[in-house]
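User: Second chain of the day. Same drill as before.
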Amino acid sequence: MSYFNVLRVTKNLCQFSPNGTKFAYCFGNELTIRNTVTFEQYHTFFCLDIADYIQWSPDSQYILCALYQHSTIQVFSLHSPDWKCKLRHSVCGIVDVCWSPDSRHILTTAEFHVSICIWSLVSHTVKYITCVKETTKPCFSFSSDGSWLAVVEDQGDLDCISIFSASWKLRKQISCVGLGRIEGFSWTPDASAICVWKGAPDKCQLQVYEISTGELRGNFQSSESRMCGIKAVAWMPSDGNVIMWKKCKDTENGYHWQYWTFYSEERKPNNIRLLNHITWQPMVEFPHSDILLDKVCTVYQESFTKEQPSKISFELIHGRPVIISSLQMDLENPTKLMGTGLAVFSSCGYFLATRADKMPAALWIWSIKEMALQSVIVHKQPVTAICWAPVEPRLAIVSGSNFVSLWVNKKVMVHMTDQLCVSDVRWDHSGECLALCATTKVAFLQMPAL
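Assistant: Same format as last time:
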């Protein structure tokens, strides 16, 4: 493994193109495109000011730069570098932006979610969607096949999901009866249904609606006292099951969440619940405990040698139990450390990596095939970012230090870099190159084939 080409960047703005042939990064007001094979400079575009965000179009032919302070989006073409486009919403401002799946439309969200603007790069027209629910993130989402756009709209006492076609015409409105306010939603992988949920502390409920008919396909609701709403959901890539990680609100003594600030050391661990995508009933729960007794899983702990104190390694821990350091509960904000704040499936769907909010320095890796804990990797600092390789089940883990740890086949390798403090990692499309990102620099790590 070897490092190459350290680049200076601004605001950590750098991205591989979707087709993997180009790499874009910003430094100052310059947007530079490089070839990922030869790393030669392809072209440099100039922005009006320092950009806040960049994003490739899905077909890798265009790239946009968002300048939110100027309420402006600049668009550049790789096919015709002299072609330029500028989108500006001076009245309401712009707080978010994304490409449509056809790479010929750009959607911007106005301040306070007043509207969603749909800008056409072909017809040079603008369409609007109003009544967008402000508190829902995301407030809109495209289906996996790109044929449908779902938007959460506020209809007074009841929220609804509005389904738009690729031509931006309203096709259906689904009223989520019995759910009340929508806290989040997500398309099913096959784009045949949409999943909506309520994350309020008083109710844990998830509903699935058929897109073609608008009928309720599935419903999950828990009356367990230890559940405290749904924090987030994610779909398993392989077979369409849904994983739901949630907040927890009980203690060993049975007290509810408003009391367990006094029993923080005794409460049950936060669990991840796996639901069957046909019956929408729980299949298994994955617990996160600060006292680990499992003898089958491998446990690694960050350490260093006395001979080389600057060299980091991960030591395999054989003894049990393993005590995992946990944070003390904030009495003023008792829900802050509830649940699992990070959960990501591997691209093959065989593994799930999670991080419990109360134990932020520990990363848990679960085998979906075996429905069991595979590995636990304990860092000295909180895990800030993780990223699975797009091809092989290799997991890059970042904890805000001058190294990145890599989990492969139950083993952990460490790659040190003295040139930057790594805050994020990004794989190229082949999984052979890993970009190590810092606020002001990015370096590249060439990976060997497994």
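The longest strand covers residues 227-235.

User: Great, on to the next one.
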